[in-house]
Structures are given as C-alpha cells and as structure tokens.
Amino acid sequence: MTTNLTKEEILRELEETMKTDPNIKVTITINQTVEYLDASIENNNGQLKTTIYHKSAWEPHILPYESDHPRHVHANIIYTMLVRAARICSTIEDFDMERLSAEMILLVNGYPPKFIHHHFKNIFLRFDATSTWTQLDSESYKKLHDALLYKPTQRETKTNVQSIDQFIQNQATYEHKDQIYLHYTFENGPLLNFKKEYRKI
C-alpha cells in the first residue's frame, strides 16, 4: 500500500484493522522497496521506481526453439518479454538490462541470434521506438513506456468486448419486461413445487 500518512498514522490504522476481526492477520513491514507479483516498486526520495522482480527460485527456462511449436509462438514469447519489460520498468537503464537478460535467456534456450534480432527490430519498429533500442534514448523510452503502460492487454480488450456484446445482447433479446423469472432448483422438501405454484399466481 502507498500512502501520504505518517508512519505513526499508518501503524495506528493497521492496529485498528487487526482489532476489528481476529481472523485478520497483518504483517507490518515498512520499507523503501516492495515486491508485488512480478514488479518491484522502490520509493526513491518521493519518486516511485519500478523494475521487474525475479524471485530467488526463478530459472531462465522458456519454450526451447527446437520444440515442435509454430514459429509465431516463439515470436510471441519475444514480444511478451519485451512488452512486459517496457510496461514495468520505469527507467531506460532497467529496461535495457531486462532486454539484455531476455536476449541471453533466448540464446540459452536455442533461439538463433538472427531470429532474436529480427523480432526485436520488428517490435521496436512497431512502437516507433528504434532509438530506444539503438541509442538508449530516454525520451523515446518514456513514450514507449507510457503507451504500453496504459494500453489494455489482449485479455483485457477481449473481456471488455465480450461484456459489451453480452450487455447489448441482453438488452436486445429481453422481451417480457413485466414478468419476473425465479429460478429455484429444489429437489425435495416443502419448496419442491414452489416454482410451479408461484407461476400459477
């Protein structure tokens, strides 16, 4: 959690929260750095810095290039690695270290250097950020980072489209607006015939 409260106010709030319910157990740790999922967030004199967090048990294994998967799957791995780094890393230096790490992981897993270079180049061209790759241009990286940070993922876009389609379909197909449908599945007991009796009314 991030807040503008003082340390004492935060501790008081957390202690009050723990008193409200005996099932709530909060471990209080106040630090300059916090790791959450795959991101590490550091407070550096009021400026938040984000980088990719690698757990200590993390190993550099990905789908080997020699596997029987179509080539677009391998290209998607490269795309995902770079986009993830660009979305999470707040500075170009951290992004470049993640890019180099990704390149090494790809090489270790049998990806040809020409294949890696080709797909890196395509990704930077796609986002108009070649100077980020070739010259480590901070302004170009800032544009890339901001564009990717606020761009919805494919899963988010798909979910939004499905929910909008479902909403439109529900509005279009609902004909009996003056009727109430109650769905009960009683197999035995006094309410076994409730649905039939209710509909008779």
What keyword list fits this structure?
mainly alpha; single chain
What does this structure look like?
- This protein has helices spanning 7-20, 71-88, 92-108, 113-126, 130-134, 138-150, 154-173, 194-200, and strands at 33-36, 39-44, 47-52.
- With 201 residues, it is mainly α.
- Strand 2 and strand 3 (47-52) form a beta hairpin.
In DSSP terms, counting alpha (H) and pi (I) runs of 4 or more, how many helices? 8
Biggest sheet: strand arrangement: 1-2-3
Number of strands: 3
Task: Give the biggest beta sheet.
Answer: 3 strands, antiparallel
What order do the SSEs take from the amino end to the carboxyl end, as H and E? HEEEHHHHHHH
What portion of residues belong to β-strands?
5-15%
Which structural class is indicated by helix and strand composition?
A: mainly alpha
What is the averaged pLDDT score? 80
**How far is the first residue's CA from the last residue's CA?**
54 Å
What is the total domain count?
2
Rough outline: extended
Radius of gyration from the alpha-carbon trace, in angstroms: 26 Å
Enumerate the spans where pLDDT stays under 50 for 5 or more consecutive residues. none
Query: Percent range for helical residues?
Result: 40-55%
